Amino acid sequence: xxxxxxxxxxxxxxxxxxxxxxxxxxxxxxxxxxxxxxxxxxxxxxxxxxxxxxxxxxxxxxxxxxxxxxxxxxxxxxxxxxxxxxxxxxxxxxxxxxxxxxxxxxxxxxxxxxxxxxxxxxxxxxxxxxxxxxxxxxxxxxxxxxxxxxxxxxxxxxxxxxxxxxxxxxxxxxxxxxxxxxxxxxxxxxxxxxxxxxxxxxxxxxxxxxxxxxxxxxxxxxxxxxxxxxxxx
Amino acid sequence: xxxxxxxxxxxxxxxxxxxxxxxxxxxxxxxxxxxxxxxxxxxxxxxxxxxxxxxxxxxxxxxxxxxxxxxxxxxxxxxxxxxxxxxxxxxxxxxxxxxxxxxxxxxxxxxxxxxxxxxxxxxxxxxxxxxxxxxxxxxxxxxxxxxxxxxxxxxxxxxxxxxxxxxxxxxxxxxxxxxxxxxxxxxxxxxxxxxxxxxxxxxxxxxxxxxxxxxxxxxxxxxxxxxxxxxxx
Amino acid sequence: xxxxxxxxxxxxxxxxxxxxxxxxxxxxxxxxxxxxxxxxxxxxxxxxxxxxxxxxxxxxxxxxxxxxxxxxxxxxxxxxxxxxxxxxxxxxxxxxxxxxxxxxxxxxxxxxxxxxxxxxxxxxxxxxxxxxxxxxxxxxxxxxxxxxxxxxxxxxxxxxxxxxxxxxxxxxxxxxxxxxxxxxxxxxxxxxxxxxxxxxxxxxxxxxxxxxxxxxxxxxxxxxxxxxxxxxx
Amino acid sequence: xxxxxxxxxxxxxxxxxxxxxxxxxxxxxxxxxxxxxxxxxxxxxxxxxxxxxxxxxxxxxxxxxxxxxxxxxxxxxxxxxxxxxxxxxxxxxxxxxxxxxxxxxxxxxxxxxxxxxxxxxxxxxxxxxxxxxxxxxxxxxxxxxxxxxxxxxxxxxxxxxxxxxxxxxxxxxxxxxxxxxxxxxxxxxxxxxxxxxxxxxxxxxxxxxxxxxxxxxxxxxxxxxxxxxxxxx
DNA sequence: GATGAATGAGTCTTCATTCAT
DNA sequence: TATGAATGAAGACTCATTCAT
Lengths: 233, 233, 233, 233
Description:
mainly alpha, DNA-binding, HTH_TetR (chains A, B, C, D), 9 helices, Tetracycline Repressor, domain 2, TetR/AcrR family transcriptional regulator (chains A, B, C, D), 0% strand, 233 residues
């Protein structure tokens, strides 16, 4: 199709072609709906070769997940310049994230939608990557918390010791979930709403998130009003 | 299994049984992996009957989406008591949302994961519902913005009037998108993470979001730092 | 092919048709070489129906083995009239056996060749049947041994009683094994060699075996010569 | 595995390695289930080389059959010392046969099971070998018959002229079949029954067979009883 | 003498869907 | 209202076999 029928290439190259085709197909059709036939054809090879190199549909999908997770993490990591303030680093991370996922919609679909929708073998694969990102954000938040309410400080990197973490662990995980969810929604929305750039979307998200995080750190959480005669259910 | 082999029931009832079975199956297995056989068996009817009432797999799935979307919207609507402060209304809405999705994990999986993962016919179906909810949130934010910087006030609906809205219209829309996206992600996460109650999830999100909104309203937005000699890739 | 395309038959009937086709195909092509396509076509049904009724190739093959084993055992059993002399009963059993296998070459191929050539699931299935037949023969030999050296007698069931059995127990078992093995081989050979009737095969085997047994009973066993300076290997 | 990766060996050697691997694989997996991949790997060579030397799967299998048949015949031949009595020669032949097949289960599986299970090209290949063995046994029987009832004579080898053969040709073939079948069964049974040595099994078989043969030669065959009112279904 | 790269054809198996009653 | 009987179409996976070097 897109590529002339080039024959006899070294294995490593062919494998990448196959992964490209697989990511595209899985991302657009979904794991179940994607057929190995389609992937092979898109890769410009015969099906047996796909099986020879990547042993099964499951294994192929796993390879896709791993590759996409690695490139995403790498994109974010290399988008963030160390030694700057926490908020700047978050901002840079978000931009890198938005940019990469926007350029790689299929890869992102695999990581975010497909891998989660299909049982343990895959979910675990993504969890590892997610952990890395959550850890990244967590560190930023922790830095901000140590440096006082003003997350805009350019505080040093040290994961230094504060007696207590400002937030319980799974609260942080929840925040990361929320952040990613918000980012996704915004990205999709920005893609569809004319006049809204990806950069603007990122800024909106920073606005949305950063102050909230700041307030949390400063111990000014929003607190639920007392239940007043609600009849639940 | 669960139900005694009762025969000859009115159509409406049978249809609900089928939808119940379908929601459960689609939610757990995914759209593609769910088989009509399994659904029919779980519903306690023969396959031809399923086809007689709901004409195809696609159509059955659509019906599931519509039913689940309707009950979700209704749950949120009836969880919010009108005439109270904006933050309280948002809080109640979120609680209702998280509660409903927690009680209905399969239904939520259908709306959030499955419908989005499988092409246009279904995505559109969900978009309508989403729109409704986004509109609801947008209204709340707008009200809060109009009522002054402190959305935390439990004050009456209109306190002081500032002629201009504190926020440009599409900024509001973006925030609503972000909020809803965050909520969606959190719901999926809370369903899957043991030890996280619906109320906790709602509180986490309120903490995260409301302070950020507050800062925004008060004219203290986070603003992106000027780009300084970045060599973007 | 052979049968007019008759549609809509009760399940039990269709299953037998399928088994007929499967026995024929497995018997002629072998387990691995037989294709489900071929079987389905020969049975005059579509492949899915075969899978609906007999769940897999393995399961179908097992069903064949069981059916053929049962009919073979039944054929032998009903061919032997009780209450007659041991040699007559053996003769009748052999005749029934050879007749049945000659009329059912495919079934016999399945039991004798195919089932043994393909792993445990199947071998075990046949072993049970074989055990039954060996036990039957063992009993006959034991009776003959008890009734005195001349099994050729057409005498009544118990002539003279010698307290001890003329042969040690596992010698009897070995003879039964040998007899059955010889019969099995002869059956396969008779099926394949034109001009050899079941009756002739049975007679050959009786000739071969009965005299040997007779000599054994009468205490005239063949005994191996002393090893004389053999350099083994 | 077993062999160090030695490269560049003369063709004859490589061919034997391949045949070794093929015999093992065919013997254990069966003809159909054995894959050329597995054979090549086990032989420690690449697949194209296998095709270069032995042109196809069929041809490779044929080569296996021929080699195994030749070595089996040779083993039996060289196990029998000429110039001794007929019964001793049979006894020695049986022992050699048992020993060789026990040491070469894969080769024996190929000759006995696989070759027979898969159509003409292979069955014919085995038939030749079988013929040789049958001829060997036939000669022994003939010698015994000539020398009178006592097969223990050490009579000369000559296929010399007696007016009529004591037995019709295909009767002899049947006896050989029966003998081999009995031998096989006994071998399998001896392998599985504790307390029964291969030698004992061989003795049992001689007992079983020799007297029977003797009686046959002496014109004292077992004769079927007159049918008495059988209802032959 | 030897191999990495590649495939056409076929196998088992499953699924959504429909008749005929 | 309800179902037992039946299938066309497609999907994952494997295999014997061949180039090009």
